[in-house]
Amino acid sequence: MNYYAGLDWGESHHDMAVVNADGQLISHIRVTDDASGLTQLLAALTAVKRSRRSIPVGIETSRGLMVAGLRKAGQPVVVLNPTQVANYRSRLAPQRKKSDRGDARLLAHILRVDGDAHRPAPTSSPQACALREATRAHRQAGLLHR
């Protein structure tokens, strides 16, 4: 059986939902944005499927502790464009209220339905990650312009 995960990223916490090939919700977990939360996410994926690395995780950002930790642990991370996610949301339920839990499930659903159209993000070297984060920090500080 195939499984798909969606991770709704937040500043202080994250919601992860796992669905099966039929779209049924298998697992939902809310974790904090720290090393303990990452450990809980990996354990939740392992609880769903012993070979957790076969479960792709959809998320709308390519940065942050969770993304870096998942990638370092060998978990396939699929970065989904937020505009595309919004289009999926309106296609499935035009009046649906936005919720962290619902968005996590939506991200998993996108991978389940259209996973072939999305590829896992390639792994980056530690040097590339450091350069990317330094560039982002400089940009946020107003030292670099796009």
TrEMBL record:
Domain Transposase IS110-like N-terminal: 5-140
InterPro entries: Transp_IS110-like_N (IPR002525), Transpos_IS110 (IPR047650)
Transmembrane spans: none
A Pfam family annotated for this UniProt entry: DEDD_Tnp_IS110
GO process annotations (BP): DNA transposition
GO molecular function, one term: DNA binding
The protein's name: Transposase IS110-like N-terminal domain-containing protein
Native organism: Micromonospora inaquosa
